[in-house]
């Protein structure tokens, strides 16, 4: 568009007559048009922000609407007489739980008659109201409390996921047509039981503290064990990435000479920050599991992988905090004869600490929510049905982690697990929110303006 | 001595070293620290460093090398027929499990140590014996496995002994050396600081080590894969249909296509929204609005990708089905299932909005105020200033930001694993399910495939491709952004 | 260069281009400009002088409402240009700024070609009907800014690649291209070396023929060299205003005298 060979006008007076603006009080047509364009442009911006915020609201709404249900659970209150002979007989049998199931059946039939509810359903069909884990609950109680045998104990047994879903409005009558686990008669019965106060919905502590359950018992699945797994991973990440990150940042920011090696390290760090997380999973699989033979699915390995992944983030934010400490502080320390190391460790580092901690917490939050690398080191597919026993087991024995557990649930066929997955997300987000709020508070409290 | 005890011993030695070193320094100066070259504490630290650093290095190297060496030795005991029947990895994990079982049996008193070393499958039901102490084995223990396991135990015990002796010897040596060197003229501070400096350098080079680790783990397995499967078929094959029985077709083209398609949709969502949001926030919004809207948008960036994956699978997918699916609002039946390129693309776009907007925001803010003043002073409207002065000036930076977002999109895993589908397909219909490079890396490595089979190794080749592509995008993007920043610094 | 306006001209107060009446400027809670009354005459160079922080630049920026871009800034009182109040809600600052151009302290060419830098203003204000008219505007502006001979062969090179003095003259040319009636200059030479400064000063003196010029300057020598009238600001107050020679030789106020003789500053 530029023309380098413009001819100079022979005389300036030949130039187009200077544009005269009549009055600044009346906008001319062009100005009106330009102002309209201005207003339009501004609206585009507002619309963009509105769309972004709409997505945020939609996402949060989806999470809450689908996930809050996981914090409620339907229980059946049944008085079960723990009969000595029956229990002994059950313990001798090969399939112990089926005998306990029979005990529950008997007690439940009595509850029904007491509540004046008549049904023509067989015991087998009635059993479908209960979680298939109900018998195990009774058995564990009986074995753990031998002194209670002989008396009648009020059990609150977990209802099956379908009944639970019905009470929460997730399962509709029309959904039951193809369902072989439950039919409309069950739902009628559930209504009656609810009126009689036998069936009720309460806060579900077991979801927060419990362990994962097998495919057939979504109503008993909890996120507790994987929370512990995440906790141990975060310990590893914290205790490795904070010292290493700070040490690396101090070197790069304060000591590193300007040369090729330093450049290489810097380019490396900024690239690693952008490497897809799944690649770190491959690294973990190949190096930690295949080469070093560390145990699969162990939080230690997960922690190591996540450490490598969060290090660049932590290094970048730590360097920024170190950079923010004015050189005059360093000069002051050096000026009274401190060594460079002393000036850094005594003055610069403490001043940069709030910033470093903020960055570390944000890095940890990122690591806590990361899923992809965990898939490759075997933290998915493992059913975290037990708590680790002891600290060493916490690091070394197989476990899941919160995001991996959520993924696991999302993959299962029974939609009842989706509710658990969304519920798990709520728990995960609460952790992330807490961490971020701590980071924000730290920043606000200790932020210095030099 | 097991690992925790060794560490404890080292710690005790180090603490003792600190006091001994400090004490010796003080006493050699007759209690007058002013005579000393450094503060007394530095002499203590000097001993600590000499005690801990070399011994820990030895320990780490030992921990890495020993399992590899022992594995090598023991696996040579496994006959080729056994290795061929299942895979060497599986046999070796059996061996390890039996060996652990024997350890457990000994520690619980179910066997004595001698018996553990001498039992024979011919004479004892090893599986049963181990079952009693709670070690469940999948199959009966063969004589070969048992012998390997016993040898494995032997090697391990020897290794452990030598490890303990070696590490402690090095620690004591360091301790003694440190104490001997302590005298008032010794420059303890400089010596400690030199070591600290090397520790700092070591920490900084972990970044390089990580990259080297990534590259090596990808290269070795990729080369292995190309030995089993021709590279040309991999790079130019139009079909992806792995079958674990063999005879798989592993062409990357459909995966690359879907990856690009999804990324493109994601960028089409994220770039305009993110860019306009950034312009509005940095140029128009009052500080008050900015203080609210910016962090709110950034929440989107803090939400883990698994959440977006679930959102795609369970919310956006079914919603799109209701519109485009058979029996949907439009009644067009273009969509077969909730997972599709479009589902994943849109959700990924949402995820990238704050990424694009905060990067662009930084970049727009880096354009000097003088530019704005210059343009406004000439009577340009704000939008003319943005469109004709600020955005052109910020263009390189914004291009860099978009490239970074693209690299993010290509490498994103959870959203596509959950939202895009599992079947590889070459199609132009965005409402069809397709699958991407990252999704296949996950499925090939989390399946039951043997790690030595091409079906599992292909994941490393896919990872290599992914790594190279994203690395190039990142390098170009970071270079552009860096140059841009320098321009206005 | 320093040609004193004669008495008749000075008496033509009705013909003043800009007239400010009791102008107050606040930055948040800070009262930055207090009660400034001033008449600025057409086709004259008026210099604002004063110690740094005295409010001279702030006041200059109120004249084309550049202060609007600062959120916490508030202006009271009236400023009229050709009898029209520029703070009237009906006034569009965009149109105002086309009439009152501005040149800044630091040369700020856009990262575009020299040609596009000059053409930017005419393009956004729709001053040219076609390419050749635009070409004419560009070349005449560059000629008026005395830059034509230096750049006529490299109009498509970036404006950021020129020397500091050239960049500032480019910015002046850019302002002229919009055909404003008033040009405000905020310490236009503070980032330039003496030779470049001399050229810009020469240019300012030539521009007086066609434009009303208000210049803020740190240097009293510069004010003496280029301006016909001088206003002295101190602590947000307009202390004294009058013909330049009078201010420099015979100031009425003690503070002006102290400043001019170098007691403070």
Low-confidence stretches of chain B: none
| Structure summary, number of beta strands of chain B | 2
Element string of chain C (H = helix, E = strand): HEEEHEEHEHHHHEHEHEEHH
C-alpha end-to-end distance of chain C: 26 Å
Question: At the third CATH level, what is the topology name of the largest domain in chain B?
Answer: MetI-like fold
CATH superfamily of the largest domain in chain B: MetI-like
Arrangement of strands in the largest sheet of chain C: 6-7-8-3-9-10
SSE sequence of chain B, one letter per element = HHHHHHHHHEEHHHHHHHHH
CATH class of chain C: Alpha Beta
Question: What's the story with the biggest beta sheet of chain B?
Answer: 2 strands, antiparallel
The CATH architecture of chain C comes to 3-Layer(aba) Sandwich
Query: Roughly what fraction of the amino acids of chain C lie in strands?
Result: 15-25%
Average pLDDT figure of chain C: 87
- Structure annotation, total helices of chain C: 11
Considering the chains and any ligands shown, give keywords for the structure.
heterotrimer, A: mainly alpha, MetI-like fold, three-stranded antiparallel sheet, 18 helices, 3 strands, globular, B: 489 residues, 2 domains, two-stranded antiparallel ribbon, flat, phosphate transmembrane transporter activity (chain A)
């Amino acid at each position: 568009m530029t023309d380098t060979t413009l001819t100079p006008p022979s005389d300036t007076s030949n130039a187009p007559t200077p544009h005269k603006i009549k009055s600044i009080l009346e906008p001319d047509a062009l100005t009106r048009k330009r102002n309209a364009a201005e207003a339009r442009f501004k609206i585009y911006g507002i619309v963009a922000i509105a769309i972004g915020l709409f997505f945020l609201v939609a996402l949060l709404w989806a999470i809450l609407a689908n996930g809050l249900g996981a914090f409620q659970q339907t229980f059946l209150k049944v008085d079960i007489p723990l009969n000595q002979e029956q229990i002994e007989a059950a313990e001798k049998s090969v399939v112990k739980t089926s005998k306990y199931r029979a005990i529950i059946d008997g007690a439940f039939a009595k509850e029904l008659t007491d509540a004046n509810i008549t049904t023509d359903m067989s015991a087998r069909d009635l059993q479908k109201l209960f979680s298939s884990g109900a018998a195990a609950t009774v058995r564990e109680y009986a074995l753990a409390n031998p002194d209670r045998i002989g008396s009648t104990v009020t059990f609150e047994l977990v209802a099956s996921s379908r009944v639970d879903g019905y009470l929460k409005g997730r399962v509709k009558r029309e959904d039951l047509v193809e369902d072989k686990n439950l039919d409309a008669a069950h739902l009628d019965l559930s209504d009656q039981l609810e009126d009689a106060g036998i069936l009720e919905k309460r806060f579900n502590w077991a979801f927060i503290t419990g362990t994962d359950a097998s495919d057939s018992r979504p109503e008993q699945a909890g996120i507790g064990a994987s929370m512990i797994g995440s906790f141990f991973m975060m310990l590893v990440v914290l205790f490795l990435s904070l010292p290493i990150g700070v040490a690396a940042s101090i070197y790069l920011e304060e000591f590193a000479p300007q040369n090729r090696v330093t450049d290489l390290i810097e380019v490396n760090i900024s690239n690693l920050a952008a490497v897809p997380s799944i690649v770190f999973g491959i690294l973990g699989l190949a190096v930690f599991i295949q080469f070093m033979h560390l145990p699969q699915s162990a939080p230690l390995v997960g922690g190591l992988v996540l450490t490598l992944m969060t290090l660049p983030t932590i290094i970048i934010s730590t360097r920024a905090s170190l950079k923010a400490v004015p050189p005059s502080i360093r000069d002051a320390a050096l000026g009274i004869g401190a060594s460079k190391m002393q000036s850094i460790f005594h003055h610069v580092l403490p001043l940069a600490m709030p910033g470093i901690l903020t960055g570390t917490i944000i890095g940890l939050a990122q690591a806590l929510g990361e899923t992809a690398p965990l898939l490759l080191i075997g933290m998915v597919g493992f059913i975290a049905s037990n708590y680790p026993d002891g600290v060493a087991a916490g690091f070394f024995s197989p476990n899941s982690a919160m995001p991996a557990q959520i993924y696991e649930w999302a993959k299962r066929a029974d939609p009842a697990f989706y509710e658990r997955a969304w519920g798990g997300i709520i728990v995960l987000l609460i952790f992330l929110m807490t961490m971020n709020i701590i980071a924000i508070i730290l920043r606000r409290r200790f932020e210095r303006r030099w | 001595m097991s690992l925790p005890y060794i560490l404890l011993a080292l710690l005790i030695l180090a603490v003792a070293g600190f006091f001994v070193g400090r004490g010796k320094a003080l006493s050699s100066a007759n209690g007058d620290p002013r005579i000393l070259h450094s503060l007394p504490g530095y002499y203590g630290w000097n001993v600590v460093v000499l005690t801990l650093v070399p011994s820990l290095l030895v320990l780490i190297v030992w921990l890495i090398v020993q399992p590899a060496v022992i594995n090598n030795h023991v696996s040579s005991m496994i006959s080729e027929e056994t290795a061929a029947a299942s895979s060497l990895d599986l046999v070796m994990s059996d061996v390890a499990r039996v060996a652990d079982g024997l350890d457990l049996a000994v520690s619980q008193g179910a066997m004595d140590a001698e018996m553990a070393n001498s039992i024979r499958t011919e004479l004892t039901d090893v599986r049963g014996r181990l079952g009693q102490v709670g070690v469940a084995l999948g199959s009966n223990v063969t004589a070969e496995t048992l012998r390997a396991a016993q040898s494995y135990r032997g090697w391990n015990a020897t290794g452990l002994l030598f490890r303990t002796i070696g590490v402690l010897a090095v620690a004591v040596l360091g301790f003694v050396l440190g104490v001997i060197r302590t005298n008032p003229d010794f420059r303890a501070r400089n010596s400690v600081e030199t070591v600290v400096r090397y520790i700092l350098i070591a920490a900084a080079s972990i970044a390089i080590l990580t990259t080297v680790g990534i590259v090596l783990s990808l290269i070795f397995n990729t080369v292995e894969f190309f030995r089993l499967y021709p590279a040309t078929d991999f790079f130019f094959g139009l079909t992806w249909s792995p079958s674990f029985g063999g005879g798989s077709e592993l062409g990357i083209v459909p995966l690359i296509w879907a990856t690009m398609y999804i990324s493109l949709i994601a960028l089409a969502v994220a770039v305009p929204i993110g860019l306009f949001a950034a312009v509005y926030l940095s140029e128009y919004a009052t500080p008050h609005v900015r203080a609210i809207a910016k962090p709110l948008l950034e929440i989107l960036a803090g939400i883990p990708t698994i959440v977006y994956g679930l959102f795609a699978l369970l919310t956006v997918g079914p919603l799109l089905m209701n519109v485009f699916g058979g029996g949907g609002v439009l009644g067009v039946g273009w969509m077969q299932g909730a997972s599709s390129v479009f589902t994943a693309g849109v959700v990924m776009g949402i995820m990238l909005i704050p990424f694009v907007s905060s990067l662009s925001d930084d970049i727009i803010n880096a354009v000097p105020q003088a530019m704005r003043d210059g343009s406004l002073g000439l009577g340009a409207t704000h939008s003319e200033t943005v469109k004709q002065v600020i955005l052109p000036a910020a263009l390189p930076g914004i291009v860099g930001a978009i490239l970074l977002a693209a690299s993010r999109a290509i490498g994103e895993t959870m959203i596509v694993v959950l939202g895009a589908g599992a079947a590889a397909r070459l199609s132009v219909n965005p409402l069809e399910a397709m699958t991407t490079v990252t999704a296949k890396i996950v499925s090939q490595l989390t399946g039951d495939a043997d790690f030595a089979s091409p079906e599992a190794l292909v994941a490393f080749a896919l990872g290599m491709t992914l790594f190279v592509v994203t690395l190039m995008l990142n390098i170009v993007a970071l270079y552009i952004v860096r140059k841009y920043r320098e321009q206005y610094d | 260069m320093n040609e004193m306006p004669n008495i008749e001209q000075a008496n033509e107060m009705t013909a003043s281009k800009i007239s400010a009446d009791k102008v107050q400027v606040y930055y948040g809670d800070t009262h930055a400009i207090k009660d400034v009354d001033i008449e600025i005459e057409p086709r004259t160079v008026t210099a604002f002088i004063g110690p740094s922080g005295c409010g001279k630049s702030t006041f200059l920026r109120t004249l084309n409402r550049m202060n609007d871009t600062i959120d916490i800034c508030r202006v009271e009182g009236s400023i009229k240009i050709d009898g029209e109040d520029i703070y009237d809600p009906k006034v569009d600052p965009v149109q105002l700024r086309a009439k009152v151009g501005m040149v800044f302290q630091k040369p700020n060419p856009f990262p575009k070609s020299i040609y596009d830098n000059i053409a930017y203003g005419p393009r956004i204000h729709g001053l040219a009907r076609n390419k050749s008219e635009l070409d004419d505007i560009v070349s005449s502006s560059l000629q008026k800014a005395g830059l034509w001979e230096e750049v006529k062969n490299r109009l498509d090179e970036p404006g950021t690649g020129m020397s500091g003095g050239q960049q500032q003259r480019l910015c002046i040319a850019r302002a002229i291209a919009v055909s404003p009636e008033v040009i405000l200059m905020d310490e236009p030479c503070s980032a330039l070396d003496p030779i470049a400064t001399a050229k810009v000063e020469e240019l300012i003196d030539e521009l007086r023929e066609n434009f009303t010029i208000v210049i803020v300057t740190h240097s009293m020598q510069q004010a003496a060299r280029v301006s016909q009238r001088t206003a002295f600001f101190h602590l947000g107050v307009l202390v004294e205003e009058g013909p330049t020679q009078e201010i420099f030789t015979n100031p009425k106020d003690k503070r002006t005298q102290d400043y001019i003789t170098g007691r403070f500053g």
